[in-house]
Write a structure and sequence with these properties.
Elements lengths: L2 H18 L2 H19 L3 H34 L10
Length: about 90
């Protein structure tokens, strides 16, 4: 495994730990799960499939943006002598 991949996994593990220990994130997540379950009960199988695909795309996009912003700030303000760390 490359040093870049190891470093990125380390950064993501820090982010996960911060989020898991945040009371507001946990509360919001529970509300999301509850609403998602309620919505699915009103949908057809095709609508559920599209909803899940849509949700996954939104989550992937948000995760990618947050990771890029975090890595940019880390690289440029906390560790400016590190080699490039943003994966394409």
């Amino acid at each position: 495994m490359s040093e870049q991949k190891i470093f990125n996994e380390f950064i993501l593990s820090i982010c996960d730990e911060i989020i898991e220990n945040d009371e507001e994130c946990n509360k919001l997540n529970q509300e999301i799960i509850q609403l998602e379950n309620e919505l699915k009960q009103t949908m057809t199988a095709d609508q559920i499939e599209k909803f899940i695909k849509y949700s996954n795309l939104v989550l992937s996009f948000n995760c990618r943006c947050e990771k890029l912003i975090f890595l940019y700030r880390f690289k440029n303000f906390l560790a400016p002598n590190l080699p490039p760390i943003i994966e394409k």
